Fold this sequence. Notes:
By secondary structure, the protein is mostly beta strands.
Amino acid sequence: MEHSLARPVPLWFAKTPAAFGINNTRCLIPFAVHEQHIGKGGRVLQHEFETVGPERFRKTGTTDGVTAMGRLGSTRSAVVAVCLIGGYAQAQSQNLSSRGVQVLQRQAEDVPQLPIASYAVLPDGAQDLAQTNSGQSGQQAAHTPDPVWFYGAFLDSAYLLDFNHPANDLFRSRGTAYKVDYPLINMAGAYIRKTPSESSRWGMELTTQAGQDTRVFGFSSTAPNLPGFQGFRHLGPTDVSYLAPVGKGLTIQAGIFSSFIGYDSLYAKDNFNYTRPWGADFTPYLMMGVNASYPFTSKLTGTIFVVNGYWHLADANHVPSWGGQVAYKATSHTTLKETVLIGPHQSDTDFKFWRFFWDSILEWKTDRRTIAFEHQVGSEKIAVPGDPRALWMTAQLPVHYVFSKRWSATVRPEVYWDRDGRLTGSRQTVKANTTTLEYRLPYHACAAIFRLEHRIDDSRGPQGGFFRGREIVPGVVGLTPTQNLLILGVILTFDSHL
């Protein structure tokens, strides 16, 4: 699946860890006016045996590159159309000239915690809980006219050297950065967005994307694909939003938006590390539906949402899933976020087969240090004889340190337990540690991000392991418990505004 030091004060976010980057925004639907993002974006598979890797790759049956939208369902087509129409209408009605620093400051005081999901579209940011330093955030806000249109693009490429050198070139059971041993463009995208404000209440965002990662994330290995998935997989956050004049400001958003679940973003540029943690790849990076966010106080924001399902590109059934999030800023450095998602992810939609998922994130952040802890737990009964209950849990502890405006480093230990193989497709416990050294080279509105990363994963259990070496029999690659990856990631970004 998120984000230079200068960032608006991000606190509430949809999905992505704090990747200290340039102009980032994750689908920040909820809580805090900023232009960065921390978030997450794509999932892998799930359902009967939620597995990623080759099984899922074959299921999607798509080819890389931007494809025609295909046959869109009437409801989904309407959502996309509304996004574009809303944005165009707003562009015609608003004056894009600068409002001046005083207007921006006044609005900031009146709406201290404006929840804006459309913020998350900025592809260069990650939905960071509180990813940027507040002092720099204030400076950035003071120099940004309001309202304003933001636009940009990014290119994410990498080489993942797998010391096991598997014959199928696959990182087993993964949905992002899953191809190893040769260079690839994992993700490329472009976006345009406008955030709603008191002076211009309509907002929108449109994001297009292509690359290796668009082939797997967002699909399920056991549920049919969504009609029109060939086109939808090339859409990132694409939605319309409205800041209703209710109390302190109720933000409503409809379309495809960044997930409220998780600390990491679909886009590597928005994260601290290049590769995503296990918990990110097995929770949704994007959601399709409607959400509403409200800042009850300057510290407490609540959000509710209704979505088409766990994976936004899967069509498991016609019963929507729903959930909510509470984000609390305990201190100027500490933020707590609790999110739940409930709904059926099987063809049998009886309540006893519904999936229950809980995500907790605690983040402590200063100008140079960010420490976060995330814990997830999910469970559901499987609609097979005996109605067995599946259970899975995961936790991660990323620690990020900024040495200077260009250099930073991150260490991220994690564990993923899939007792019944429901999410990963294998009954296993995975322990992993990822260490990343990052160098950022800004140039005007552009930036180059270089990441050198080492990752070690250890999988134990009846079905655990990673691919290694040649095929032991035709079509079957052998497994080994441990995998070491050495990764070089190069990310190019461009972010500007009108």
